[in-house]
Amino acid sequence: MQASVAAVQFQPRKGEIEANLDRIGEIFADLAREDPPDLIVFPEASATGYFLEGAVHELARGSSEYVDALQRRWIAAAGPARAVDVVLGFYERDAGTIYNAALYATLGGAGARLRHVHRKLFLPTYGVFDEQRFVTRGRRIGVFQTAAFPSAMLICEDVWHSICPTIAAVKGAQVLIVPSASPGRGIAGPEIETVGRWRSLLCSAAAEHGVYVVYAGLVGFEGGKGFTGTSMVVAPDGRIVVEGPPFEECVVRARIDGEAVDVARAGLPFLGDLDSVLPDLLLDEELPLPRGGRAAH
């Protein structure tokens, strides 16, 4: 099985949902003109901008509202016959609770379908970040079937905790989709330090688990903080297939191939080894895991 993917480095207008959706519609039209991709991935918080703070309560929306809005714009761009999968980072309101979330939806064709919503697990509260004051964390990593590959989504800091890609891979994911809003920090030689760290992190996650990683980074400036972009697709052997430049809007495109997953996992069967060892690791009574309805200390 093969699929084509487009990771969009997107610069939203802070707090202007309709303007951002209209810009997404323009990107849909550009991508639909020639060789439309099977999957389009937008970054974290691309519907509103990232640093909303208290305004998040006013700007959060339900996932179905965004799916309907994306469906209208995709149909306008590509017509009703062509289907496409889309990932959008947004602030979600669900039953009165606010999350930093990403949705995965299939648009066009016989009608829009919401396949999965991931809610960010790790909410940073250090440096320039203060997410946990304004949104609630998610509680699980879900693996879901797309038209091509079993996939999972992790939002920004989620992927910095190595247990998250591991759980996704053990649960069957062959593709990890990572929407991100990462401000640039530090200069290390010819490049921004955070860009180098992201590159190393994503390549390691791909190679260790034999998965594709599709990373879409926000760009633009909010409150004097610049988001780095550098969207990329990483192959299951840890090789970067394509990478976007820092700080500017662009679309990076690649093809992902299920055979490459099989080859990588056969050559380095780390995931199979983990399947065997993981039960023993989780039975370690020194781990602070719930046992018998109570957490061990």
Structure, briefly:
Helices cover 28% and strands 30% of the residues. The chain has 297 residues and is of the alpha+beta class. Strands 5-4-3-2-1-16 form a six-stranded mixed beta sheet.
What do these coordinates show?
This protein has 297 residues and is α+β, with helices and mostly antiparallel strands. The chain has a single domain (2-269), classed as Carbon-nitrogen hydrolase (Nitrilase/N-carbamoyl-D-aminoacid amidohydrolase). It has seven helices and 18 strands. The chain has helices at residues 17-32, 56-59, 63-78, 163-170, 193-209, 258-267, 270-282, and strands spanning 2-9, 39-41, 84-94, 97-107, 113-119, 143-145, 150-153, 175-180, 187-188, 191-192, 212-217, 219-222, 225-228, 232-234, 240-243, 250-257, 290-291, 294-295. A six-stranded mixed β-sheet has the order 5-4-3-2-1-16. A six-stranded mixed β-sheet has the order 6-7-8-11-14-15, with helices on one face. The chain has a two-stranded antiparallel ribbon with strand order 9-10. Helix 1 (17-32) packs parallel to helix 3 (63-78). It is globular and about 50 Å long. It starts with a strand and ends with a strand.
Summary tags:
single chain; 297 residues; alpha+beta; Nitrilase/N-carbamoyl-D-aminoacid amidohydrolase; six-stranded mixed β-sheet; 7 helices; 28% helix
Structural class of the secondary structure composition? Answer: alpha+beta
CATH class: Alpha Beta
What shape does the CA trace take? Answer: globular
Name the CATH architecture. 4-Layer Sandwich
Strand content: 25-35%
Main sheet? 6 strands, mixed
- The total of helices stands at 7
CATH topology, which one? Answer: Nitrilase/N-carbamoyl-D-aminoacid amidohydrolase
CATH superfamily: Carbon-nitrogen hydrolase
Please give the alpha-carbon distance between the first and last residues.
Answer: 46 Å
Question: What's the domain count?
Answer: 1
Strand order of the largest sheet: 5-4-3-2-1-16
Count of β-strands: 18
Oligomer: single chain
